[in-house]
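R.M. (postdoc): so does anyone remember the format we settled on? I'll just put the structure tokens first.
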């Protein structure tokens, strides 16, 4: 995938709020606007809580359809994309860290990561071990995800996202429970993974850029 293009996008749950937005305040560069995200470029989408950051990520990932306007993935609008195509997109073009992480709580951290590796019929034990060591959770890999702290689960979710191929990496407030040292380490892994794949990066935050060299920062 080379490009994501948005046109006049309005999520239905936010329609009334957007309609009442004071003209004197800064306007969203995403909602009700034209926006284009290109592979290989890095974007920060920022806004206070409640402005639809997770909604935006879920729309791109094909999980929400309650909106007006258009979203095009390589010139194909989302309603035209069939279920089989979505499976391919989510395995090859998009990788994601959800804000709520979506790990299997009863599985260990390692099993959660292996479940991702199985999709690609690859042995990723070395990558798993190396990234876990970098992020300081190697000693927690064989513990059930439900017993990990939220920050530890965030690090597992980041590793899981980096195990798969992708053209765009979607990160929904991925560092909310990480300290500065772990943010720096995770940022390094993310930037290296994007560089190897020549991939695009879309990250949401409350406004922090975490030192990433973003090509563009957009107000949601």
């Amino acid at each position: 995938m080379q490009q994501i293009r948005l046109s006049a996008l309005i999520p239905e749950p936010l329609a009334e709020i957007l309609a009442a937005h004071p003209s004197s305040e800064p306007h969203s560069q995403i909602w009700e606007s034209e926006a284009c995200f290109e592979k290989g470029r890095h974007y920060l989408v920022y806004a206070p809580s409640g402005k639809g950051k997770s909604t935006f990520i879920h729309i791109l990932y094909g999980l929400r359809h309650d909106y007006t306007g258009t979203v095009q993935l390589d010139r194909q609008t989302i309603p035209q994309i069939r279920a089989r195509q979505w499976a391919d997109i989510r395995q090859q073009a998009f990788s994601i860290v959800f804000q709520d992480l979506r790990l299997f709580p009863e599985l260990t951290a390692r099993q959660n990561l292996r479940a991702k590796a199985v999709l690609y019929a690859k042995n990723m034990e070395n990558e798993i071990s190396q990234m876990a060591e970098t992020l300081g959770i190697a000693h927690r890999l064989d513990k059930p995800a439900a017993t990990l702290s939220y920050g530890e689960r965030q690090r597992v979710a980041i590793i899981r996202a980096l195990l798969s191929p992708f053209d765009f990496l979607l990160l929904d407030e991925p560092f909310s429970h990480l300290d500065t040292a772990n943010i720096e380490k995770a940022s390094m892994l993310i930037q290296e993974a994007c560089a190897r794949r020549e991939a695009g990066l879309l990250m949401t935050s409350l406004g922090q850029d975490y030192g990433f060299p973003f090509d563009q920062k957009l107000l949601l």
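R.M.: ...and that's the designed sequence above, right after the tokens. Also worth knowing: The mean pLDDT is 96. DSSP finds seven helices and nine strands in the chain.
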